[in-house]
Amino acid sequence: MATNLQFIKSVEVTSSTSSIDIDNVFTDNYDVYFISLTGFGTTSTQQTRLYLRYIDSSGSVESGSTYDYATLRMFAGSSFTEANSTTATYQQFSQIDQSPEGAGLSFYVFNPFDSSSYTFLTFQMASNYGSSFLGTKGIGVEHTAQSHRGFQILEISTRPFNSGTVSVYGVK
Amino acid sequence: MAGALVLVDEFTISSAVSSVTIGGGSSGSSSYNFAIDSTYNVYKLVQNNVTGVGDDTTLRFRFTVSGTPDSSSNYDKAVEKLRADTGFNQSSNENYNYGRLSASGTGTGTSEVTNSTYYLFNFPNSSEYSFITGEEVMLSYSPTLFGSQGGAVLTVAQATDGIQFYMDSGNIDSGEFKLYGLKK
């Protein structure tokens, strides 16, 4: 069967860290990318939330207040909530926790390498933390007309992760 | 460059069946005898034109362990139900003995079917829970346009190797199921 998804790169977390760079994955070969995260787990029993920041064409992590996002957080054990921002310094995803709890995350990135357009993202995530299930759907944009060559996955609560794999695919 | 979305199992219902198992090795519905394993980090499942024999029957699933459906009361799920006729609904539950992401019951009228895409995470990892995310569009038995966005988890640290689909009542009348591995 012909497919339109082409593998670019996988990066594995092998030691405790609060951020991991997936650099030099966006090029002019593709306009749209599919990215999966699996097996992410924290080093302690305290959950943390994952975020994304893009890496610009010079290799710097974009941490300005140029991220907008909107997410729907669907809890199995309580009411759903919404989270959004127009001045964030990152794209917000959702929770991970220590194994065997954890998460699966997939997202599409649109036009990250095009220096004349903003970079858009849609994502879906399934998490289990604190013995409760959370499904999250979300969208986001980094509203700077600039080229991105990669991205960083991070957490900001000083609750590092020590496992997980990030895989990047181009959509032809 | 070769594609990274690799078809590993598929099954099309040709006559009504009580269940369909995708993956699950030799217990699977197809002749592929494929069991989800660590060959791929993430799997994608596409389900098309699924409907029950009876009116207002809803698709459920269970993950399989060595081909056998896990019917323990350890499935949690949360979905947002979208619908064309009125406001959206939140739907969630914990500790059920099955998973369900479908928003409503299928029907026997024209195109009263459910269509979904799913991503499967951590299935082959025996020390992790098994996660699924899903997106659905369907025409219910009413008929009304429904959809769902959400996910589920089986909170047992074990390796799972497939998914069994079945209706809450009666047989599955039609449907096409395709499982892909995402090449590492």
Note the main attributes of this structure:
heterodimer, A: 172 residues, mainly beta, eight-stranded antiparallel β-sheet, four-stranded antiparallel β-sheet, 12 strands, B: 184 residues
Number of helices of chain B: 0
**Which regions of chain A have little confidence, pLDDT < 50, spanning 5+ residues?**
none
Helix content of chain B: under 10%
Mean pLDDT of chain A: 94
**SSE-based structural type of chain B:** mainly beta
Coarse morphology of chain A: globular
How would you name the oligomeric state of the polypeptide chains in this document? heterodimer
Quick check: average pLDDT of chain B?
Answer: 96
Major sheet attributes of chain B: 8 strands, antiparallel
User: How much of the sequence of chain B is in beta strands?
Assistant: over 45%
Task: Give the terminus-to-terminus CA distance of chain A.
Answer: 14 Å
- Would you list the SSEs of chain B in sequence order as H and E? EEEEEEEEEEEE
Spatial order of the strands forming the largest sheet of chain B:
1-12-3-8-9-10-6-7
H/E series of chain A, N to C? EEEEEEEEEEEE
Task: Show the largest interface.
Answer: A-B, 41 and 41 residues
Strand order of the largest sheet of chain A: 1-12-3-8-9-10-5-6
Major β-sheet annotation of chain A? 8 strands, antiparallel
Question: Would you give an account of this structure?
Answer:
The complex is a heterodimer of chains A (172) and B (184). By secondary structure, chain A is mainly beta. Chain A has strands spanning 5-13, 19-22, 32-42, 48-56, 67-75, 81-88, 91-96, 102-110, 119-129, 132-142, 148-154, 161-171. The two termini of chain A are 14 Å apart. In chain B, 0% of the residues lie in helices and 51% in strands. The chains are: A mainly beta (172), B mainly beta (184). At the A-B interface, strand 1, strand 3, strand 5, strand 8 and strand 9 of A face strand 1, strand 6, strand 7, strand 8 and strand 9 of B.
